[in-house]
Amino acid sequence: MASLISSNLTRDAAQDPLRVVGLTKSYGPSGSKVAALAGVTASFAAATFTAVMGPSGSGKTTFLQCASGLDRPTAGAVFVDGREFPYGSEAQATRFRRTRIGFIFQQYNLLPTLTALQNVMLPMQLAGNPAQRRRCLALLDQVGLGGHAERRPTELSGGQQQRVAIARALASRPSIVFADEPTGALDSASASAVLTLLRRAVDDHGQTVVMVTHDPIAAGFADSVVFLADGRIVGTLQAPTAAAVSEQMVRLDAGRRSGGLR
User: Fold this and answer.
1) Alpha-carbon distances, residue 102 vs 19, 179, 187 (angstroms)
2) Containing domain of residue 148, as a range?
């Protein structure tokens, strides 16, 4: 199933796990503001894997930060499971994220003093939910680390640490998982294993994944790709291949150098 990424939201997108409407983010003083995002509207359907790509400075990282609630947009709204993201206070925003959103970062962000199992259990504990030890052990087993539950991050390879991070992101059954360059620090074999796990999370468990990446090979694991340039969606690609993604990225780079997108 390919994700619906629409600028007009023609179907009942209100039921999608993630919807952003008019998402805008500007930086700088009044009178000389720079728009990192310029009114992005999109919807991401359930049980899909979407890659977000674009040239350097296109707004893809800002999109992830705003769509996930890590940063507050200048204008626009983010809806998760039909509920608008609350920006009333940081405590309110944190509670909302903990129960609905999972994160996978390039640098893993595991706590070095905790074991792999404790790192996976942590989000549920922070949310005030009983830590489901059996579920977390099962998740570690699913990512190939069933025998490493009591090891600390320093005792694991980079690829193994990222697999712990994936298990942690899935532990609380979030509506959507955001992945920020999840293979950027990995060798090719570990990267492929991590991307395969994300693909399985979508296909086998109905997870919705939005991944920012610069790698066409990584994007080839997704159902679809959203291309950003100058803070706007400038194209989408269904059933992507690494070759097709690379071709589109070359066109975007050429368009920027010539002063206009084609």
Assistant:
1) 16, 8, 24
2) 46-65+86-226+240-258
